[in-house]
Each structure stands twice: as C-alpha cells, then as structure tokens.
Input
Amino acid sequence: MTPERARPTRPSRTGLAPELPADTRTGMSRRAVLGGAAAVTGAAAVTAAAATPAVAAPQAAGSAGATATARLLAALPPASAVKKRARLVDYEVVELAALMRARVVTAVQVTKAYLDRIDRFNGPFETYGDNGLYNAFVRIDREGALAQAAAADARFARARHTREELPPLLGIPFGIKDSVAVKGFDAKDGSHAFDGNTALRDATVVHRLREAGAVILGHTVCSAFSGSITGTFAGNAWNKDYVPGGSSQGSGVAPVARLAAACIGEETGGSIMMPSAANGASGIKPSLGTSSVAGLMPLSPGYDVLGPIARSVRDASLVLSVILGPDPANDPLTLAAPEPFPAMPLTARKGRRPLAGVTIGIPQSDWMRTGRGVQTGTSPQDTYDADHLAAFERLKGQLASLGATVKEFPGLDVTVAANDPYFSSSDVLATVDGSPVSPSSAVLSPNRYEIRYWDAVKDFAATRPADQAAALLAQYGRKAPGESAASFESATRFAGLIPASVRVEGEKRRRTLQANYQAALDAAGVDFMLVLSLGAQIGLRSGGGFPVYRAYYQLPNALAWPMVSFPVGYDSTVGLPIAAQFWGPRFSEPEIVQAAIDYQDHFPQYHNAAPPDPVADAPKAAPRMLRPAEPATPPELSNDPLVAEEALR
Output
C-alpha cells in the first residue's frame, strides 16, 4: 500500500473518544466550559470560549526534519505557475498565498477586494432573513480585517530581510460561522435570541487560523439555532432566489460568491455538506476528533465538527491542515485522532491515472427522500433528475478514466434492524421522566448534560430581556409528560437521569453500527464511497427546500466518518451546481481528499466556474426576529440528530 493510501488501524476508525477522569484535565474542558465565563455584556457566555490551545496543531512532516509550516509552504505553486484569473477574488487560497509571497499582490489589496464585494453584494448586516442580496455575512470586522491585512503585509516585507518562515495562510481573508467564537464579537447561532453572547476568546480553530496568518472578515450567517439543512437566510451563490443549504449557509455561499477566500463551517448533521453541495463549494466534514470544537455553540457534542469550505479541495485541505490537531485541555475528543495525524494532501498526484488501485463504491441502500417519502428498495440513482443522473454518469466515467474502479455495492441498509441497532433504531432502552430513551438519545443527551447545555442557556437567558428569554426557552426547553409548560429544568432533568448503564449500551450500539458499516465496505473491497447528497434541482427560498436528498444525511455524523463535497456539473435550466461527495472510514480524510484533489486537477472546469453577480433587489433589513417567521423546520430536515433521527423511526 502506498503512503498516500495508508490508513489508521481499525480501532482508531471505529472507536469514539476516550473518557478522561475529571482530575486529569487541565484548562478549559468541553464538559465544563459552557456558561463558565462572563460575556462582555455581563451575561453568561453560551459560546464555549476556548483558551489558547495548549498544543499547537501538529502535522505529519513531508520529509525528515521538515517543519509543519515548511511542508505546507512547499506545496504552494510558484508564483510564475499561477495562471492569470479575471479578478483578484477569483484566485484560490493556495494561489493567493504564492502571489503574496512573491509580492505580486498585497494582503491589503486582497482584503479590500473582498470587502468591496461584501459592500456591493452582501446587503444589510445582522439580518436573519432575506436582506435583498446574498446575506452571506451577518456581521463583519472591517477595521480589524484591514489591520490584520496590513500587519500581514508588514510581515511579508520584513521576511525579505529576516528570512522568517511565514505561516501558510498569512493575509488570506476568512469568514467564520455565526456559532463560533471570535473574540470581542457576538456569536448568535442564527438568532437575535443570542444578542449579547459575546466571546471573550477565539475558538481554537479561529486561534489556529490567526496563528497561521489568516484575516478574519467576520461571521457568516447560519440557520436559526443551526437547525435547518436547507437554509433561507442567505441566497444561493448562483441564484439568490434559491436555497443555499444549511446550517452553515453563509459559509457555503461566501467562497463561491467571492465574498471570502474560504470559510469555517460547522456540521452536526449535514451542515457542511449540504451548503457545499447547494452552492458548488468544496467542503470537508472532518471525522469526529480531527479538529477541536472548543469555542463552538454546541448542538450535539459527540457529533459536532468544524471544517473548511472553500472553492477548491486543495484549499480546503490546506485549511484543515492548519486547524486540525489535539486540543486536550479544551476538547478531549481530539485525543481520539491519530497522533501525529497523517499529512493532508495539498497537491494532485502525477500521471494520467492517479486513482489506479482505488475502489470507490456506490452504496445502493443509501436511500433518497423525495416528495413521496424515503425511497427504500429503489436505487438512489433512480431518484435523480435528468441533469443529476447525467452528471453522475459522467462523473463515474471521469473517475474510471483516472484509474479508479467504480462499482455499485449494497452498502449497509440501516432500515434493517440487525444492521443498525443505533442510528434509526426504534428500540427504547429506558423510560426516564416519562419519556422514552432511544439509543442515540442515550448517548447524546448525557453528552449535552455534561457540558451544561441547558443550564448555560438558562443562565444566559436570565441576564437578557424578556423577549430573548422567552425565545430561548421555546427553543431549548422541554415539556415533560404531565407538566403544563416547557422548562430548562425538565430538559436537564431528563438527560441527567439517564442511567450510566443505558448510556453505555447506547455507546456500544454506536460502535456496533460503525463496525457493521466498515464490514460492508470490507466485504465489497471498497476503499470509500461516492454519493450525491442532493439528487435534483434545489428549490426556491420561498418554501422550495430539497426535492430529492439523502434520507440518511446524518449517518456519517452518527458514524463519526469524514466526507468531502465537490462540484461536478451544473443543471441545464437555472444553472445551479451539481455536487458529489466522497465519504469513508473515520480518519480517512487524507485518502478521500487526495482523490478529490486528483479529480479537480484533471477536471477543473467545475470548481473554477464563477457565478454571475446578482442583480440587487432593494436592500432590506428584516425585522429583529428572535425565532424564524417561516414555518418550523420539518423534522426530517433538522440538523439536530435527535430530531431528524426520530423522523426516521
């Protein structure tokens, strides 16, 4: 087996994070951070504000003695090899990094170019609704971004004399999802109900981006409470009248619409993959534990991951290379990842057949959902519309031309109880406080309890005006059987009363599901899988949603496995992107990302395409809504696994 395809050992693929005794942890723990710090406003901070990471993000050296930074810099193209693009904002991250080092362009020029497009095409800020334009950014730090860019240029100038080894993302402008802590700014998770939730520190991933020289432009808009995988607050990068995908909708729109060079998204169940697919971005959903989630407003600890969304997979891989690595003081889940983590690929492999020896499987039981419900027993490809099917067939041929073996295989049918004792299982492991405990709730509810998930919101709500407090209670409270009203206390009580034996059983079932799916791949001789998350043209923002999509879009999160999304075509009517995804065993990021980089190197026309600039409606600021005005997200489109999985039972 070649180094590019080497994999971690089986335990690191299927095992979940190790438990750490409380007295062995130092600094800020994911199990103790929520509500533990005072916000700038004096309120209790709901964002898990991360301390400065105790350990820098490690990288596997490309050669003996090489530093992590040297390996990343060595992968940058020479400035002379960078093809001229129409606009400054059309260059990829790796190209901008090369051009800045050659002093062909400056960080201030690049940052101003993105800020200019934000001024022209974003529309009013702090708007959780249709603002008349893209609405990819919900707030920006203009002065801070320009100051960071100027500081980057000063470092470039000094390095000419000092030979300083400059970090790989120096001067590159980024957007950060609205649920991730950026020091000094509110993180609102898609709702004004979190007004005043000001971060005292950067999240670990933001800290690592800054250490790598990134320019932080501001926060990108996300679905309300990160709750929807379709999204309506932003406009699609290719046509703002269509849905952008969620919940990391602004992070999916901004790189493609040329409002940022790259972004950070968050996924609990589809929230990086869906906006990447809907907008034709290149996004990576890491394995659980690859990157730290300290500083994230959590949805479901044990599923939540932070990852990059960019225009090319090599850009996204460079970003992941910077942000990954252990963060033991703040996120013990990162201790489950291989150490050092296998080097992320940053360049395409040479030759006409770089995928020779790779077997890519198309799981035939990865059922799709249409307007008629989940299409069990029907091949996923039989549900695709004509444009998506044509793009899929073309993609299979393209991958085969690069040397891959592409074949259909059964996959793991999670509608069969024996295959899936966890994810969509209808089993009731216990009844607690009058409510049934499903296998997934046996895992996720105690995880939430241990990080003070409800208590943190309760403490924050107690400091806020009555309308905010009521909106937070409506979102996070629980009404137990026999009780007259929802309360934070009921939600906390239910999770806290789940017996340890029930939690252990839930964890055991999750591992069994992982092992069963791995066995399905092994039996078919499949290295990783190919799917389409979206199988038909997406709908209009006014209630269109996703007509055809993967019914089990949350399954990779339940498995803790990684995915990469990349564009493979465009539909023949509106011109919206068509995207595909690779996904494979836990910590197989290097393998699936390398394959996607190889594909884009040979077929660059899809990720290099730029959407037309939108025709502006009259810019408008939506009313200050504390909860979405539109109908509640259907449970089958929820990013919350306990909601979405219940819809499958």
Confidence is low (pLDDT under 50) at residues 1-45, 48-66. The first helix runs from residue 10 to 14.
